[in-house]
Amino acid sequence: ALGRGETKYTPESGLLALRKAISAKLKNENSVEYAPEQIVVSNGAKHSLSLVFMTLCNTGDEVIIPSPYWLSYPEMVKVAGGNPIFVPCDEKENYKLTPGKLESAITSGSKILLLNSPSNPTGCAYTGEELRELCALAVKKGLYIVSDEIYEKMIYDGMSHVSPSSFSEEIYEKTVIVNGFSKAFSMTGWRLGYIAAPLKIAKAVAALQSHTSSAPNTFAQYGAIAALEGGNDCVNQMVMEFQKRRDYIYQRITSIGKMTCCKPQGAFYIFPSIKAYGMSSVDLCMKLLESEGIAVIPGKSFGSDVNIRFSYACSMDTIREGMDKLEKFFAGL
């Protein structure tokens, strides 16, 4: 694309060829139909999420966020003028939101239910039936659903990803799908994400984007077309390797000390509980770094100060070395 001089502006929603490719992907893989006019390509899924919150939120509108959550969600909501409402989810329920907890969190000010499956940081993934119940309740109460599906292809043990807008026309009309190319295609630096939404919402997001960033990177969009047209063989191979790493790191962590841990069903994170050690996540992470040279993320950043987050998006050799050092560290506590 660069060699052809594809460096000029594209339409604010992105190249029509790319939006057509995304439309075909959504139909073939997710069983949902969106016309190209209902798709807006942006500068990464984070940008897409930010645009959606700025489009849907009025000042003070409540956005319900299951906790633990990806650390950027509440900041995006606050920048958009919204009010993040956290719903703590239990380890014994794989950190997944339940209909009962959702109903208790809904107020007259509730505007959006934010769902992320598979999840960063927990790795949990909702079944189709679990999602259907949550979405039916949300729509019944008049909420929009923002479905962050960036890890959709990274799902294990025979589970299948389900997009909420596939459930019914009523849910479709209240759902915004957010996805991108960073995770499934390892295109992190290309900065391309997209939304698929009811036409009215898509037009509003496109208008906002036109006034804030004009359009997504032109030549990167041609790379995204190639990724979508290239098939899923390389993606499937990557997911198989991630599952091997998941199995290994889960086995190692659950055999160490007093940590407890849910087995991740997707993404490439594992989120063990350190509650039994009586330390804050920040203190424990600092001790790990200073003592063993292991860098992990405090759960406090994700709304849970009794957890720490590991990523297994690294080589098996690195994981083995890290787990050996982790075992040594906890043996000394």
Give the overall shape, derived from the CA principal axes: globular
Low-confidence parts = none
**Any idea what the CATH architecture of the largest domain is?**
3-Layer(aba) Sandwich
- Rg, rounded, reads 20 Å
**What is the percent of helical residues?**
40-55%
**CATH fold-level topology of the largest domain:** Aspartate Aminotransferase, domain 2
How many H/I helical runs?
11
**The level-1 CATH class of the largest domain:** Alpha Beta
Structural domains: how many: 2
Query: Structural class of the secondary elements?
Result: alpha/beta
Strand content: 5-15%
Throw out a few tags for this protein:
333 residues; globular; three-stranded antiparallel β-sheet; 11 helices; 2 domains; 40% helix; alpha/beta; Aspartate Aminotransferase, domain 1; seven-stranded mixed β-sheet; Aspartate Aminotransferase, domain 2; 10 strands
